[in-house]
What does this fold into?
Amino acid sequence: MKATVGDLELGYIQQGQGQPVVLIHGFPLNKSMWEHQVQALAGRYRVVAVDLRGHGESRVVEAPADMDTYADDVKALLDHLDISQAVIAGFSMGGYVAFAFYRRHPGAVKALVLADTRPQPDTAEAAQGRRNTAQMVLDSQAITGVVDGTMLPRMFTEATAKNNLQLVEHARQIMYATPVPAVSADLLALAGRADSVPTLETITCPTLIVVGEEDQITPLADAELMAARIPNARLEKIPGAAHLVPMEQPAAFNQALTRFLDSLTP
Ligand code: MLT
It folds into this structure.
């Protein structure tokens, strides 16, 4: 489905009825990373999986973006769908968007799900590396280095990479569907993202933190930091998973998610 919000066209999946749950994808992915969650939740919840601008079915925008822009796009989609309050679930970069969403639209957040994400900003060196990569992507008009060089090798555990080639290939295809301008815009947004550590203790809504036990991009220590600082947080560690937990261990991820969602409704 597509919605026109302002001058932007945003792709999204919407299924089911009940408490709205919004799923925000990571880098450099799109809404299809959530297919198992949409299936599992749609029986009891109104699930909305969004394509951030430039990704999936959303219109490609050449202008640079930041996490606040992505967050406001999600809010505009919710307004379009007449959803005043939702559970906001973000994976990795989607978690950075969720933090921005919470800062900008706290009244629209019923609860937060922070999956394989972290609150700290990039170091100066890491941010510079991302900006260099953004330029390289634009110059070469290719995202091979990002997908096969940097991201894909760290998405899954060694065991999955060896034994589940089909899953790895599926993730690769989702990544390769992301156009050059979106990958470059994401990298600049990632590099410039705000420090969300001070946000943690201001989060008053129920929060679920999920992390793959073997995640190297946003490791366990980051999840534990969030769990310690967010007043009303619950932490779920998923065994046999690295970074891309919703795709690598969908059953365990869905179990943690539904347990949390069910606890919100009396
Ligand atoms: C993501 O997986 O969405 C991001 O790449 C995480 C990051 O690089 O900080």
